[in-house]
């Protein structure tokens, strides 16, 4: 089997289309994971015991089951219950919620690391609970967690091929498509690997930069 | 005493089975400077923390300006205070902490302007002008743009005092504000407090181990032991001629440790 540059040139536009979807799913998934992760972390700290416990249960449930099963559930089971999601929406929700459970642990640790004196000073300044979170706690808690969060987002990026199982035409399923119709796997699969590697290689120094930028000062 | 700004009436505070304050009663006149002294664990700091609503109480009543701190009236009945009531009561009280508790992610100026802007809706320009006056008062106008991490302990504590003053409280609570400082930095903070004591009519409560400062500064000194007031009186009497043996023993120990009174 010989490497065929002409074939690579031919399939590249399709692969790049797929890569676009992969990156889009990662970006939207990361945003959802960050927002829902923070939501989970805050709900788990709720003064209402039932709210905290139910959230804890949901988080453990999502984390304890495979992402692939969750994707199938979102895309194939929910429509039977009357909720029809597009493949990409189901994929983003699946990725986002799955990684939100990991992100929530990062948020929880970051929030717990904020010294008690900060809460007390906020109270002595007569800030409301919302103002305390918004202006005092989160601005201190979030920067140190950014490297850990970014790590999860890179991991999420590498899990996006799972979305091909629910018919999202991302990089992997584009590659499989052209491979199947041309009976050539060498170039498409190699290029998938190369493209993932390229993005990851860009992400690694970016991560280091983030780690340096947000290294705790205290 | 009806004209008291703070009235503490049979207050009891427990942590689990450990009783920190036991049926505590005392009141404070408006403008009075009160020093709370006594061995560690005697409940002095707990009183300040309770007044700041950082702790709740298990029994008794605290009244600020004649109004109950932890109770409010609803439909003619006394019910536990809600967040809005506590918020309103806190506007009368400011607190300075032993460990400063400055907001490390905000510069000195923002530390001072944050609360007035958020809680009183003061405009940024006005808040900053007022903050600069206060920083000038504590001798730190040139540090307005510095971050807390760049300041010495004494400077941090002076910023913390300015931050508390920015909300114009009628009552200021000073909780061992010099205990965490290197000895050579203690005096600059005490000087600020002396100046506040002599130029304002704020009611000030301080928990301190600086006996000579308490002696010069306070109108009245309360000596605490095991959650109760053992002895109280004007400093010139309590420090030089204490009647209770536990006060005598405590002061003897303080003098033996090298402090001047």
TrEMBL record, chain A:
Pfam families: BPD_transp_1. The chain crosses the membrane at residues 20-42, 54-75, 81-100, 189-210. It comes from the Bacteria. InterPro entries: AA_ABC_transptr_permease_3TM, ArtM/GltK/GlnP/TcyL/YhdX-like, Ectoine_EhuD, MetI-like, MetI-like_sf. It is a multi-pass membrane protein. Its main location: membrane. Keywords: Amino-acid transport, Cell membrane, Membrane, Transmembrane, Transmembrane helix, Transport. The keyword Magnesium does not apply. It is found in: Cell inner membrane; Cell membrane. Residues 19-207 form the ABC transmembrane type-1 domain. Belongs to the binding-protein-dependent transport system permease family. HisMQ subfamily. This is Ectoine/hydroxyectoine ABC transporter permease subunit EhuD. It comes from Azospirillum endophyticum.
């Amino acid at each position: 089997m010989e490497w065929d540059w002409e074939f690579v040139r031919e399939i590249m536009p399709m692969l790049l289309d797929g890569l676009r979807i992969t990156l889009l799913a990662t970006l939207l998934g990361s945003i959802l994971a960050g927002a829902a992760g923070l939501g989970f972390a805050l709900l788990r700290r709720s003064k209402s015991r039932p709210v905290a416990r139910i959230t804890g249960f949901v988080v453990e449930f999502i984390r304890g089951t495979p992402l692939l099963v969750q994707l199938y559930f979102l895309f194939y089971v929910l429509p039977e219950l009357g909720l029809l999601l597009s493949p990409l929406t189901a994929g983003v929700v699946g990725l986002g919620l799955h990684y939100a459970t990991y992100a929530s642990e990062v948020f929880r640790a970051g929030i717990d690391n904020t010294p008690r004196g900060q809460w007390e000073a906020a109270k002595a300044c007569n800030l409301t609970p919302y103002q305390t979170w918004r202006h005092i706690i989160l601005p201190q808690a979030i920067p140190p967690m950014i490297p850990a969060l970014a790590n999860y987002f890179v991991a999420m990026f590498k899990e996006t091929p799972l979305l091909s199982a629910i018919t999202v035409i991302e990089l992997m399923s584009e590659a499989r498509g052209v491979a199947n119709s041309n009976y050539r796997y060498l170039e498409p699969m190699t290029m998938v690997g190369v493209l993932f590697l390229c993005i990851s290689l860009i992400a690694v120094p970016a991560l280091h930069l983030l780690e340096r930028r947000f290294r705790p000062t205290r | 005493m009806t004209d008291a700004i703070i009235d503490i009436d049979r207050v009891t505070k427990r942590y689990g089975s450990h009783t920190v304050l036991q049926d505590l009663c005392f009141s404070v006149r408006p403008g009075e400077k009160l020093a709370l002294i006594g061995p560690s664990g005697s409940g002095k700091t707990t009183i300040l923390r309770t007044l700041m609503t950082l702790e709740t109480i298990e029994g008794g009543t605290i009244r600020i300006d004649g109004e109950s701190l932890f109770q409010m009236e609803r439909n003619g009945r006394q019910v536990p205070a809600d967040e809005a009531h506590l918020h309103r009561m806190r506007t009368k009280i400011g607190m300075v902490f032993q460990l400063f508790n400055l907001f490390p992610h905000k510069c000195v100026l923002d530390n001072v302007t944050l609360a007035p802007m958020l809680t009183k809706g003061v405009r940024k320009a006005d808040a900053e002008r007022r903050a600069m006056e206060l920083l000038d008062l504590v001798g730190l106008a040139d540090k307005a743009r510095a971050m807390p991490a760049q300041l010495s302990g004494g400077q941090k504590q002076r910023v913390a005092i300015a931050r508390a003053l920015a909300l114009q409280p009628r009552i200021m609570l000073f909780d061992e504000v010099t205990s965490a400082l290197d000895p050579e930095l203690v005096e600059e903070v005490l000087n600020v407090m002396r100046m506040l004591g002599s130029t304002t009519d704020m009611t000030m409560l301080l928990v301190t181990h600086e006996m000579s400062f308490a002696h010069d500064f306070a109108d009245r000194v309360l000596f605490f032991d095991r959650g109760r007031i053992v002895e109280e009186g004007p400093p010139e009497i309590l420090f030089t001629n204490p009647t209770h043996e536990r006060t005598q023993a405590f002061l003897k120990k303080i003098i033996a440790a090298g402090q001047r009174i």
